[in-house]
Design goal:
Low-confidence stretches of chain B: none
Helix content of chain B: over 70%
Number of helices of chain B: 21
Largest sheet of chain B: 2 strands, antiparallel
Mean pLDDT of chain A: 87
Shape of chain A: flat
Radius of gyration of chain A: 24 Å
Number of strands of chain A: 0
Shape of chain B: globular
Largest interface: A-B, 62 and 58 residues
Radius of gyration of chain B: 22 Å
Oligomer: heterodimer
Structural class of chain A: mainly alpha
Distance between the termini of chain B: 57 Å
Structural class of chain B: mainly alpha
Distance between the termini of chain A: 62 Å
Strand order of the largest sheet of chain B: 1-2
Order of helices and strands of chain B: HHHHHHHHEEHHHHHHHHHHHHH
Strand content of chain B: under 5%
Strand content of chain A: under 5%
Order of helices and strands of chain A: HHHHHH
Largest sheet of chain A: none
Number of helices of chain A: 6
Number of strands of chain B: 2
Mean pLDDT of chain B: 86
Helix content of chain A: 55-70%
Amino acid sequence: MLNSMNRKVSIVIFLLSTLYLFYSYQIEPSPFAKIDADIMPKGLGYLLLILSVLLFIENKEETEQEKAKRSLTKQEVGLLLLIVLFVLGYILLLEIIGFIIMTILFLTATSRLLGYTKWIRMLIIFVIFTLVIYFSFNELLGLSLPSGILPF
Amino acid sequence: MEVIDNILNGFAVALSWQNIFFVFIGVLSGTVIGMLPGLGPISAIAIMIPLSYGMEPASALILMAGVYYGAIFGGSTSSILLNAPGVSGTVATSFDGYPLAKQGKAGKALAIAAISSFGGGTISVFALMLVAPMMASFATQFGPTEYFALMFLGLSAISSLSEGSTIKALISAVIGLMIASVGRDLLTGTARFTFGSVNLLDGIDFLVIALGLFALAEVTNLVLTRNKENKSKESEVGSLRITKQEAKEISGPIARHSILGFIIGVLPGAGATISSFLSYITEKRISKNPESFGKGNIKGLAAPEASNNAATSGAFVPLLTLGIPGSGTTAVLLGALLVAGVTPGPLLMQEEPNVFWGVIASMYLGNIFLLILNLPLIPLIAKILYIPKRLLISLVIIFCLIGVYGISFNTFDLYLLLGFGVLGYVMRLLSFPAAPLILAFILGGMMETSFRQALIISKGDYLTFVQSPVSAVLIAVSVLSLLLPIFKSKMKKS
């Protein structure tokens, strides 16, 4: 019954809509509103519920092209996950270590991971790029990016 | 003549030295970003938004508009040189553009594309100038009921027109509306779906969603294709010269498809992609030798190029006059405007004529810049295609992160951004279109407000949406557009 991808997805969306509906019923009523804040969420929740059922019934066969999008080697999945981890690390440390160091680190680590090998060229580009961005944000736009452990 | 005064006023705004500079920066960066396969106009606009922080509203809009049509233009270059359209609106360009490049006539193809785009852009800006004021004055009579119906039409049109399953597109749209419902309710102030988090009280910023769903999700594409560097034998551009005979030949298609493209651009849901395909097919159908199409016919190149640029200008009509975007890209553009402090709508023309006419006038200038930039500089600009992808990927990720960090200086938004990046990628894997989601998200707040206002006025009577003739027609058209795919599949079977 759950042989097709679309059906599996429709179950997930069904669960999602019930969860959303559950929270829509928790919205506190406002004493002054004639048409209250919960009307649209409830409507949307039921609409998504109906659509998930329709997707289940429709059960359209995926085209080869659609299926091909999901054929990734383990290596590539691992690579994508590593990049996600790098981004997480960047976000986590951005305000502690600071923009300049973290950005240069991130750019270098990611490009190395992806297989770029020209070290010196890469470092020059990234250092210049980071400094240009940092100073143009801080000086031209007046938005201060975190300096972190660096004194400027 | 009020119109002429307005236009002159607009040119005065557009021709100030700083706005000339912003048009230039806009079209240049749009061209460059649009040229990179994988990064389209949505990503281009989203990536450029942080630059517009703190700018004058007119300048910000001029910059973003430049990025928008620049990106469509840049897409053509990679379509012709690499057969790798950077933008879906330029897929049809590759049908005859790439064969020309293979025959060693890349320069000629690029020149024809540049001239056709210029023609399409210029003719349609003229049309925009004529149509927009009429539309705005008509729309001033709209109440919440009509507005709701109009937005409903926009959403259903983009859902029924997107590729693949309509149900999936509708699910995308509903999820977009759901994300829009996070935060403090606009009318009562009640907190919804914030789960006690202060960070969610003001809702989710649209830039987080736009950059996550589009730019970050597209990065994965670049990662998977990183080993295929954009090198091809056709990198020799060759002569840009066009003969008199050829110029004469393409003038017909340019004129026809500028108008067709503009009209399609105005319609909600349709845009550069549909208009360019439609133009290509039409030109092939009326041609005396249709079999030469796809093998390097210059008419087959001129038609979609004039059309996609005209459609981009057409898309500004509903955006500026109604405040309603008709596509994912214009939705992001609307978000950019809101960031700059401009609320587009029927009153924009009266209240901020400088912004309205300044932008329109800047489009003339932008088209000229595109022509100048692209004709002599094409061989130079095309070098951008040879930036190693391995370097580009990490730079694009950093751009997204800084762009989002620059709005709130809050790392919470960065986690959200990453989350939406993953969501965008998963949606891609499962063939859910992302454009309905972003459009629904942008329209969500306005849609809900007008929906509830209309109900408050009618004292809770839902029939109000079919009692006003304008909204009844709009809703009928929306329902028809949603049913269209069902009829189509029935017809195919029988």
